[in-house]
Amino acid sequence: MKTRYFNRTVLASAVLGMAAALGAAGTAGAAPTLQIIGGSQEAIGDAGGTTYPVSNNVGTSGAGLPTAAAGWPNTLTTPAGFAPDSSIGGARGISGYVLSYLSLTEAATVRFQFMGEGNASNNNSFWVDQNQNGIYETNNSNGFNENLFNGNATNACGAAGSAVPVISCTAGYNQFDIALSAGLVKFRYDINQGSTYFTNNVAGGNEQPAVAGYFLGVDPYLASGTFERSGTVVYAGLTDGPFTPGAGGADHDFQDMGVRISVVPEPGGLALVMAAFGGLALTQRRGKSS
């Protein structure tokens, strides 16, 4: 009778623990997402697709931004997040925004993956303000180099797959996971070793808000429609032209440096339940052995 009573007590405690865990997961709200704020709609259908026809001869041509014109294979006739780009005859490219900025709904680990530099001849780079102090440092107080990617030195990640491409990167080289707080995702594109730079800030997305230095678009393979503003994966693409909206004929392929930005998922409620059951089994084994 003593052993049976012990087991019931443990079971009751485990059930209460699981309920508390699931309750905490529920009250925590929806998973963190990336939000594209403001800006003008733009569809990127780079005529070269994502397998760039011209290399800068340093090995950085890569997958870039997804397009339906060429590059990444897809099994969908018209993936939801693609839109036609009239400047290249209506070929479909990722839909998104220029003169916009990127925000994180709540604290999360964010992954940055270098997707290539296309045919850019400039030495472009991509930075993330890890300390979120407004200063972009080569070595900050944590010993972290906030200059994540140099177009003339970093090899691009590979992309393959169909509806949701698989991205192959090397952690700590062309892929970095950084813990960020809610609010602006503080990144910066430098053109030609800092001669011009575009910073993700409230004043329109760029240090020079009259021109569009970069593009932001929700992953078109994960979107439910065109020109979405919220998702767990967003692509950022640089044009080192830069592009002035409404000017016509300007360089707006945004493939001079592509970066995939995504929220790293956290363990969900199911994982908490499985952990609780694991703890229950271990406790019961200890009780029997005693």
Description:
The chain folds into two domains: 2-29 and 269-289; 34-263, no CATH class. Strands 2, 3, 4, 6, 11, 15, 17 and 18 form an eight-stranded antiparallel sheet that branches. It has 290 residues and is α+β, with helices and mostly antiparallel strands. Helix content is 16%, strand content 32%. The chain is globular and about 50 Å long.
Pick out its properties.
disordered N terminus, 2 helices, eight-stranded antiparallel sheet, 2 domains, alpha+beta, globular, 290 residues, four-stranded antiparallel sheet
The gross shape turns out to be globular
Q: How would you sum up the major sheet?
A: 8 strands, antiparallel
- E-strand count: 18
What percentage of residues falls in helices of 4 or more residues? 10-25%
Task: Draw up the topology in text.
Elements lengths: L1 H26 L6 E4 L2 E5 L37 E4 L5 E8 L2 E4 L3 E9 L8 E4 L18 E4 L7 E3 L5 E3 L6 E6 L2 E2 L2 E5 L4 E4 L12 E7 L11 E2 L1 E11 L13 E7 L5 H21 L1
Helix pairs in contact: 1-2
In short:
With 290 residues, the protein is of the alpha+beta class. It has helices spanning 2-27, 269-289, and strands at 34-37, 40-44, 82-85, 91-98, 101-104, 108-116, 125-128, 147-150, 158-160, 166-168, 175-180, 183-184, 187-191, 196-199, 212-218, 230-231, 233-243, 257-263. It folds into 2 domains: 2-29 and 269-289; 34-263, no CATH class.
